[in-house]
UniProtKB/TrEMBL annotation, chain A:
It comes from Streptomyces rugosispiralis. Residues 1-27 are annotated as: Disordered. Residues 1-22 have a biased composition (Low complexity). It comes from the Bacteria. The chain crosses the membrane at residues 44-62, 82-101, 122-145, 165-186, 193-216, 300-322. Signal peptide: none annotated. Keywords: Membrane, Transmembrane, Transmembrane helix. This is ABC transporter permease.
Automatic annotation (TrEMBL), chain B:
The lineage of its organism: Bacteria, Bacillati, Actinomycetota, Actinomycetes, Kitasatosporales. GO terms for molecular function: DNA binding. InterPro entries: Tscrpt_reg_HTH_GntR, WH-like_DNA-bd_sf, WH_DNA-bd_sf. Residues 11-79 form the HTH gntR-type domain. Pfam families: GntR. The keyword Transmembrane helix does not apply. The keyword DNA-binding applies. This is GntR family transcriptional regulator. PANTHER family: GNTR-FAMILY TRANSCRIPTIONAL REGULATOR, HTH-TYPE TRANSCRIPTIONAL REPRESSOR YTRA. PROSITE patterns: HTH_GNTR. Signal peptide: none annotated.
Length: 328, 140, 315
């Protein structure tokens, strides 16, 4: 048989593996091709993540259905740590293991392209991250609507804003893909995990500042004003449910000509009559309170998430254009 | 049959295959109609390059000893065993008698071997040269 | 079974191949050709660029300069045929079982030959349910070889395939490899620095040294154009009448000289001549990096008119 005949076998028909009939059992399994390989290689960490998320979701759903709030704070802290854990334990080692053991060479010298390998690994990883974070986000958001009634956590606070809606998904994806890129650049598992730990912690800190100092400033501030005067007990007007009052130090009193007066107004008086007189003298007609209504929460979350997803897309592009050639 | 390829004796593997096949033909280990091991078999058992085996078989084919049958393998065409070369032939008896006379004359084993080699050289020198030429012409 | 000895089709053609790493050139101006169906030894000292050359052929690395064609096409392209590359470390997933490792080959390679792969594994009595991490070196190499051969490659690239094996496993696996090559007409290129490993195994040779090709061609042809000369030295040097023959290497011990020459005409004189063995030939070239390189006609890269080939190499 010459090499010419062996070349012609490329056109051989029949499903691969059928030649081994009656030998190794051919179990028909749902996964095939590169997807099978990636799932098989990382199945331990994938199942761990999915299992842990399922347990957490079950706990939250149970507590919520019992109308309990016990464990709410530790859970919210756990959720904030999740992007860090995922980045360090899933993202950073995704390729470094293959680069360290040489299995990257094994995979890229099979008949499938490197792009296919990179795409499949990133896609399956993203799928696992999205499934687990979406489940947690939905469950936690449901729990929060119960807790929210006691106004302990406003929607603008980090533990609420970052742990519900699209935010946990976006934060986790960015942390994990950042970890993957760090791994591909550094090529060493341990070093990549340490650097990814630093990276994901910095992402959390920077994001908190970004949320407090930039993102919320984009929200439309709604002002509620009253004209029924201000009583000695300083009972403020009631805000809509879930609204977040901004800037307590803002001048809360409004005069008939629309001027705002600060908290110091008529502070020195001791009696109710004197206070009422003083207020009248100052021409205060009522309250003026600024707040962020909860209706803006969703829009802001999607805006923040899209910023993070755009960054994730940039990291992915970097992996494809810079990293692909170095995956051996 | 199985070829014993010695990597250390300096004789090229293809010549070892040719020699061992001829030896088998002489001894009657291989008879006409027998199939020689395929290049794959030789490669598997003796770790010899299949092209080397095929080259040896072409040499045997050139000498008219074997013939390839496409798709079936290489088969023995004729034998090298001769009745007069067996140990019960008169020639062998004469040789035994001569060797015992040589021993009586005080010759050592090496002396006898040298005499036999020298006599063979004289008789078969022309034939050896032909073989050497054939060998060279097979180089590609 | 055809002989595969024809010089017609090229399995590999390298034209001015060069590879530069940060520390310098690992390969420079490498041009040679390997006819299809050959079993070729790639020989050279450590650091000669063997692994780099194999990696370029396997499409793992991109050359800095020059071009390479595998069965007439660029490496990695659809027309380049199937190429299997068994790297020196023979990386496999340690947590996979043997059966799963073969499944990897099946899932990632269209045209996978499960029977061939299983037979190779079975011939070594390697249990299919054993984890790769628990196997011995020889068993691991066997599984890696099964993975490489199950792909039914047209070109099989092996980097120091038998370096860490005991003699029994080495002979057994060499036999398996050669038998598969015989059955499918696979072209094999295997690097090694154990010269004894090549004897009887290779019918073609490429010697790399200092990043360049020193010697390339059919083994019989290479041996036939060289002559080993032994005799008494003249004065302090080789006999003057030997001087007009191109010299590869000479050594003097006591009154005797030994020289490997590439005679243009019969080298007759007051000395003994002999054909060199493969090992003597290789050692002589490896020891004398300044000897004139020899690339026999069948090993010379041909000028090609393929569009991607932008470089012409003087033959």
């Amino acid at each position: 048989m010459s090499s010419l005949t062996s070349t012609s076998t490329t056109t051989k028909s029949g499903a691969p593996g059928t030649t081994g009939t009656g030998r190794l059992p051919q179990l028909r399994q749902p996964l095939s091709g590169m997807t099978w390989l990636v799932w098989r290689q990382h199945r331990a960490v994938f199942w761990t993540i999915l299992g842990a998320s399922a347990l957490a979701v079950a706990f939250i759903v149970f507590q919520r259905s019992q109308l309990h709030t016990a464990g709410y704070d530790p859970t919210s802290t756990g959720l904030r740590l999740m992007p860090i854990l995922l980045g360090v334990l899933l993202g950073a080692p995704l390729f470094t293991g293959d680069l360290e053991n040489g299995t990257a060479k094994l995979v890229v010298t099979q008949s499938m392209s490197r792009t296919r390998w990179l795409t499949t690994k990133l896609a399956l990883t993203a799928l696992v991250v999205v499934v687990s974070t979406v489940a947690l986000s939905v469950a936690f958001g449901w729990w929060w609507t119960l807790y929210d009634e006691s106004t302990a956590w406003e929607w603008t606070s980090g533990p609420t804003f970052n742990n519900t809606g699209p935010m946990p998904v976006a934060l986790a994806l960015f942390s994990v893909f950042g970890g993957v890129a760090i791994g591909v650049v550094l090529r060493r598992t341990l070093v990549a995990m340490v650097v990814t730990l630093g990276f994901t912690v910095v992402v959390q800190i920077v994001w908190s500042h970004f949320l407090a100092h930039f993102l919320l400033s984009l929200a439309n501030v709604v002002t509620i004003t009253t004209n029924k005067g201000v009583t000695f007990q300083h009972v403020m007007p009631t805000l809509p449910p879930g609204a977040h009052q901004v800037n307590w130090s803002n001048p809360p009193y409004i005069t008939s000509d629309g001027k705002l007066l600060g908290w110091g107004t008529c502070n020195e008086v001791q009696t109710e009559q004197a206070h009422e007189l003083c207020m009248k003298k100052a021409d205060v007609v009522g309250w003026s309170v600024d707040y962020l209504p909860i209706s803006q929460m969703n829009g802001l979350q999607w805006f923040g998430a899209s910023i993070l997803l755009a960054l994730t897309a940039a990291v992915t592009a970097f992996l494809f254009f810079w990293g692909r050639k170095r995956l051996v | 049959m199985e070829f014993r390829i010695d990597r250390r004796n300096g004789v090229p593997a293809f010549q070892q295959i040719v020699q061992q096949t001829k030896q088998a033909l002489r001894l009657g280990v291989l008879v006409p109609g027998d199939r020689l091991p395929t290049a794959k078999d030789v490669a598997e058992v003796s770790a010899v390059n299949p092209n080397t085996t095929l080259k040896a078989y072409r040499e045997l084919e050139r000498e008219g000893l074997v013939e390839p049958r496409p798709g079936k393998g290489t088969f023995v065409r004729r034998t090298l065993a001769r009745p007069s070369a067996s140990t019960d032939s008169p020639l062998y008896g004469e040789l035994v008698a001569w060797v015992s006379r040589a021993a009586e004359a005080g010759l050592e084993q090496e002396d006898v071997a040298a005499l036999v080699a020298s006599a063979m050289e004289k008789q078969y020198a022309a034939g050896t040269e032909t073989a050497a030429t054939t060998t060279r012409s097979t180089g590609e | 079974m055809s002989n595969g000895m024809y010089a017609g089709d090229s399995a590999l053609e390298a034209h001015g191949l060069g590879m530069r790493y940060r520390r310098g050139w690992a390969l420079k101006d490498c041009s040679f050709r390997l006819p299809a169906g050959r079993i070729c030894g790639l020989v050279g000292p450590n650091g000669a660029g063997k692994t780099t050359l194999l990696s370029i052929m396997a499409h793992v690395l991109e050359p800095t300069e020059g071009t390479l064609s595998v069965f007439g096409a660029a490496p990695g392209s659809v027309d380049s045929g199937r190429t299997s590359f068994l790297t020196q470390e023979k990386p496999l997933f340690r947590g996979f079982s043997v059966a799963e490792t073969l499944r990897l080959g099946q899932e990632l390679n269209p045209g996978w030959d499960q029977r061939t792969a299983e037979d190779i594994v079975r011939a070594g009595d390697v249990p299919f349910d054993a984890k790769i991490g628990t196997l011995s070196g020889g068993q691991r190499t066997r599984v890696a070889l099964a993975l490489a051969l199950g792909k039914r490659p047209d070109l099989l690239l092996l980097d120091e395939p038998m370096s860490d094996l005991d003699p029994v496993a080495r002979k057994e696996l060499t036999g398996t490899l050669l038998a598969e090559a015989a059955e499918h007409g696979t072209t094999v290129l295997m690097s090694t620095h154990v010269l004894a490993e090549l004897e009887n195994v290779c019918d073609y040779l490429v010697v790399l040294s200092g990043g360049g090709v020193r010697l390339a061609g059919d083994v019989d042809e290479l041996l036939s154009v060289h002559t080993m000369v032994t005799g008494a030295k003249e004065g302090e040097d080789l006999p003057a009448s030997l001087a007009h023959h191109p010299l590869v290497e000479s050594r003097i011990s006591g009154r005797q000289f030994t020289a490997l020459i590439r005679p243009d005409s019969p080298a007759t004189g007051p000395w003994e001549t002999d054909k060199p063995s493969m090992e003597e030939l290789l050692l002589a070239y490896l020891r004398s990096p300044d000897a004139l390189p020899l690339i026999t006609p069948t090993a010379q890269a041909q000028d090609q008119d393929q569009a991607y080939n932008t470089r012409t190499v003087a033959a």
